Amino acid sequence: MAFKKSKSDGLFELLADQSQYLVQAADILTKIIGADPQSRSALNDELHKVEHRADEACHTVLRKVNQSFVLPFDREDLYELASVVDDCIDLMDEAGDNIVLYKPGMLPDGVNTQVEILRNCAALSHDTLGQLSVINEKTRDFWIEINQLENQGDQVYRKMVSSLFENATDALEVMKVKLVLDVIEDAIDAFEKLSGTIESIAIKES
Q: Which residue spans adopt a coiled-coil conformation according to this UniProt entry (predicted)?
């Protein structure tokens, strides 16, 4: 279903604006993982700036929701939507911090798969949130795709953790690496929560 032109248009635009930071955060996190240790700190500063702008965008959405009498969706769903987008970005920012602060010696190859999954989740979410004024079959396909990506992420994560413990010789290094793997996995899980929120909205509006 499509919503008629109304004051809600501004809210949809604000959600689309907020969602662009999902893509930006995922791209910078990918660069951090691929960079040499000396370059990571500067990239992480960029990631912090994205996270700060995303926070401001989230607050703008929430203010709009608070100030609007007529809303396209349930107020609680809109709060949840903006908050979970913010959670996804916060977790990617935390992943960058964990890499820079804890300085793991070497990250498993599977981390590249993890961040590629994050980038796909971010792109799909940005696209869907940018078109949320029209709920159709494409909207419903979104949470199926995110669920598949999250399942893939789970498999990669479990395999890496198993290998990490099986082959470890340095307990401190294991802890450093696992802190990175865990928060990236949490970020992927947050995208699944985001897709569930959009699914809930779509079902109510169908």
A: none
